[in-house]
Design goal:
Length: about 375
């Protein structure tokens, strides 16, 4: 059972609205990925904890699509749009299986979802509403979202990314197929109003991405990595009226390839999108951020086994590079989520066994490996980095 990895091919004819850190009167840390040597797993991984997820046979997931990990729960979405909640040990607490439908408090399409730590509610965004449930999936309320805000003759707006800044205030980002896909909208679910639209500038390439989460908590601010191929990571602070400030700038996209080479692919057609994705150019497809690291997963060429991860140390400025695969086995899983101190992945039991076998040969500490009972089970890997 393979986790679905889906690339959406959309090329936008555009240029950067942001001219760089200097024009924005800010100081950026420059991140150079040029001439970075490969390292072994032991040079980046300190410890791995394995947490199996227990599903009933009747509700067994059909590929994991997206997930969150909190201190008291793990939340998982599968490709059928079922959402499952587990306790810290991976035992089931509840799921949304009974909420699929077209009746009151039900949904059939999910464009985005989140767990709100301020209200302790699950928020599911559909094409026209934001639905609120408690963590047992009892329906609380539904609020209309501004999905027709594109205006007459324009595409509707579907919201893919959700990040909560209070119990009723949410950052929502239109999907790559929508109008306004280069903006963050500050949405108030009490009033139903969009309080602010914040442009993060169009990149040359949109949605050739596996980005699942765009916002990362950092001290008293939020770090934002766009769901586009962008040169910048931004900071958002409440004290600055939630304006964007670029704080990291990629001097080169991976392996010293000049970012401008990617901008050459501007034609708005599927052929060029496919050429870009299959080219030998290194393309960052997912970013996760901790207090210490910015981690870029990079795709290069048409073989997923050529993927690698770049670890930028936010304190020292050093960069390490690690393969995801060694021949046919996993030496570093695809990282899908992070908090301040850890990174996380969800993989099948057989892949977890491969990964454990590889890292144990490097004397990396592993706990919970005896809990992998079935090769088709899904497990959470909670990874502590050096």
């Amino acid at each position: 059972m393979n986790i679905s990895v889906k690339f959406t091919f959309i090329i936008l004819i555009s240029v950067f609205n942001f001219a760089g850190c200097r024009k924005n009167n800010t100081t950026c840390d420059k991140i150079s990925f040029s001439n970075v040597p490969y390292c072994e797993s032991k040079d980046i991984l300190s410890e791995v904890e394995i947490i199996p997820l227990t599903f009933s046979d009747i509700n067994y997931p059909k590929n994991i699509k997206n997930f969150y990990v909190f201190k008291d729960k793990t939340i998982v979405q599968d490709i059928r749009n079922y959402i499952f909640i587990f306790d810290p040990n991976g035992f089931p607490l509840s799921n949304s299986v009974g909420k699929i439908g077209n009746g009151p408090g039900e949904y059939s399409i999910v464009t985005g979802y989140a767990y709100n730590p301020y209200s302790s509610l699950i928020e599911i965004v559909t094409p026209d509403k934001m639905l609120f449930y408690d963590d047992s999936f009892n329906y609380i309320k539904g609020v209309k979202v501004p999905s027709s805000a594109g205006g007459e003759g324009k595409k509707p707006v579907y919201f893919q990314f959700v990040y909560d800044i209070s119990d009723s205030e949410h950052f929502i980002i239109p999907s790559g197929i929508s109008e306004n896909s280069d903006e963050i909208w500050l949405f108030n679910s009490e009033s139903g109003e969009v309080m602010k639209k914040i442009s993060f500038g169009r990149g040359a390439v949109a949605s050739i991405s596996m980005q699942d989460h765009c916002f990362f908590k950092s001290d008293n601010s939020i770090l934002f990595t766009p769901p586009l191929l962008s040169k910048y990571i931004f900071e958002i602070t409440p004290d600055d009226n939630y304006n964007l400030k670029p704080i990291y700038e990629y001097k080169y996209m991976a392996d010293g390839e000049d970012f401008n080479k990617l901008i050459d692919f501007r034609e708005a057609n599927e052929k060029n999108a496919y050429q870009l994705l299959m080219s030998d150019l290194p393309i960052p497809v997912r970013t996760v951020i901790t207090d210490k690291y910015i981690i870029e997963t990079v795709k290069q060429g048409n073989d997923v086994k050529n993927m690698y991860a770049l670890f930028y140390d936010r304190i020292s400025g050093n960069v390490k590079k690690c393969h995801l695969y060694n021949d046919s086995s996993i030496i570093l899983p695809l990282l899908g989520y992070s908090d301040n101190t850890h990174v996380y992945s969800i993989i099948e039991g057989n892949k977890a066994k491969e990964f454990v076998s590889n890292i144990e040969r490097q004397d990396i500490k592993v706990s919970g490996k005896e809990s992998i009972k079935d090769e088709e089970d899904f497990v959470v890997l909670k990874i502590t980095l050096i």
